[in-house]
């Protein structure tokens, strides 16, 4: 299993604040290479030929003690950089862990949904099977109800025919004639 390489941006020189002294007319500026140029602020404001150097002089603004302190600071920075790399690795591992956890939860939810769908399908299949079994019975019941209604109609028609026949065979005797 290969681990992805960590892309670390190229190191950009840090800008450190310069000590401020109200009485000093000197300022230090870093050029594009990180070297400090010493300029006389008064000379920049009022250039005179004797004060303006033809070439800027390069000067390190730190004493040896400051430089030593900076070196230990850079060691701390390199340690912090290694800690950053370690923490970046930990962050990636944490991201992978969270992703794996989320994926596992998703798979569990999907399996649960599939299980519920299968249970629902089996329940519906049972209902369909039950209805298929009941269907012939309901057809028979419907047929019996139809036959019963037909028999009732035939009975009423037979009663009517019988009444008509009785009326034809037995003439109506008027109530005025005593027999």
Automatic annotation (TrEMBL):
Xref: Pfam families: bZIP_2
Keywords: Coiled coil
Domain of life of the organism encoding this protein: Eukaryota
Molecular function, one GO term: DNA-binding transcription factor activity
Domain BZIP: 95-109
InterPro entries: bZIP, bZIP_sf
UniProt feature coiled coil, ranges: 114-168
Name of the protein in question: BZIP domain-containing protein
Organism: Basidiobolus meristosporus CBS 931.73
